[in-house]
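Sanity check

After download, print the first record. It should look like this:
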Amino acid sequence: RNFIQRMKNNKIHCMKIASERAAESKGKCGVVGAVIANFALRDDPKRAVLASACADETHPLGHAVIRCIGELSKIQMGKKRTRDEDSYLCTGLDAILTSEPCVMCSMALLHSRIRRVFYGVRNPDNGALGSNYVLHEMKELNHRFQVFHGGALSSIVTSRLKGRSPLTCRTSAY
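Expected structure tokens:
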């Protein structure tokens, strides 16, 4: 298989995991799932997934992206880093999200130095990576990343969540 097909399969695999995590959400404001992956391990998509999470509405900071970054942090805390390694949490990693993140989650991705974000559906109320803002391209910020959305990833989200709203990151929900 060629490189492009392997990358597509990895993103689809990760979006399926994110959608499964989103289905675990029992919130009234919608559901969302997040995965952080290292696609350098592209020959085995199962090994590429480093952390995953769903939203937790019992806490105002319980957004799936924030929880996923927190899970990755717990994993990485146990690993010793050399001086040559980049000290940012998500350098070179990709985030796969069921829906477009809000400003808080987008800034968390930016500050952790994510490489790319792939999301399934837009968040017209609070989305910060295309719908309302383009935080990932602001020249005033000291990091930028690529964002991709829709297509096959959107189809996976809508089919797996079977009528439940995939939108979350709503500040009024708390």
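If your output differs, re-run the checksum step. Summary of this record's structure: Residues 38 and 48 are 5 Å apart (CA to CA).
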